[in-house]
Amino acid sequence: MSRRLSLTAALLAGLLVSASAARAGTPVDLALVLTVDCSYSVDAREFALQAQGLAQAFLDRSVVEAIAAGPNHAIAVSVVQWSSAASQVLVLPWTVVGDADSAAAVAVRLAAMRRLTHDGATSIASAIDYGVALLEAAPLAAMRRAIDISSDGRNNSGIDVRAARNAAVARGITVNGLAILNEVPTLHYYFEQHVVGGSGAFVVVAGSYDDYVAAIRRKIIREIAGDRLSDAGENAPRPAARRPAAARFAIGGKG
Predict the structure, then answer these.
(1) For the chain, which domains are there?
(2) What pLDDT is attached to residue 8?
(3) Are the C-beta atoms of residues 144 and 170 closer than 8 Å to each other?
(4) What is the pLDDT of residues 6-55, one digit of tens each?
(5) How far apart are the first and last CA of the chain?
(6) Whose CA is closest to 178, among 49, 63, 67, 31?
(7) Phi/psi of residue 63, each to 5°?
(8) What span, in angstroms and rounded, lies between the C-alpha atoms of 148 and 220?
(9) Mean pLDDT over residues 116-128, rounded?
(10) How buried is residue 33: exposed, middle or buried, by Cβ count under 10 Å (0-12/13-18/19+)?
């Protein structure tokens, strides 16, 4: 475990970039690592839908209202792209979101996000480890800490994903999941058994990447609200939603 946590030192340089946005000791209700699957199974369109979904979530009034309803009226977010065990890229260092303006600023950055990882296998375990290192090094006073794993596949690279999950939970970190079922129709069961864990952990289901925009919004609201939101039916698979309207943003990406 010490080898994986040694990532913390390497990540500190990236975290310093966000010093103006997340000052040491900043009190927040939630420190949330959002992850973007960039493995071989994700094509350019599917990557763009992930970027679009994250950006639109931070423009959503319900998300901003959920943030405002917390005791500190603020959360901190970071965003990581990932694929194989050797490829994770921090694309949004820790940034505090406390109102509509700061949420919109995050949305602009996510809308412009380009695909920066190497194409590779699916290492959910390494994405969790990277998220743990980010949270352990975060310059924040967070009431809750969570890693948001979104993926369309099972862990097939790096260590056993359950070991990574258990290590995160042992540090008081919750791992939540968004299972995208276009590749593996039973992926949500795999997520429930192998990926998610910790206080209040849950899985949200998207039938395909076309459903991702709505699913990530629901997921982020639930993560922000925590115990304030009762949504016992969230884990149940949903029928495929209608294809979302044209993207509001021009989102770059590579094939």
Answers:
(1) 2-13+27-235 (3.40.50.410)
(2) 42
(3) no
(4) 444 444 434 434 433 556 688 999 999 999 999 999 999 999 999 999 99
(5) 34
(6) 49
(7) -65, -45
(8) 9
(9) 93
(10) buried
* Per-residue tokens: 33: 């690592």
Phi, psi of 74 (to 5 degrees): -160, 150
Residue 222 token pair: 């639930």
Task: Convert the pLDDT of each residue in 225-249 to its tens digit.
Answer: 987 654 434 443 333 333 333 333 3
**80-81-85 Cα angle (round to 5):** 105
Q: Which two tokens stand for residue 255?
A: 């094939």
- CA separation for the pair 255, 47 (Å, rounded): 9
Show the tokens assigned to 97.
């979101």
- What is the C-alpha separation between 168 and 222, in angstroms, rounded? 20
- Residue 158: partners with Cβ closer than 8 Å, 6 or more residues away: 84, 85, 123, 125, 126, 164
Distance set, CA 70 to CA 36, 108, 132, 217, 224 (Å): 26, 24, 23, 17, 8
**H helices present in the chain, as ranges:** 2-5, 7-16, 44-59, 61-68, 100-111, 124-137, 161-170, 187-190, 212-225
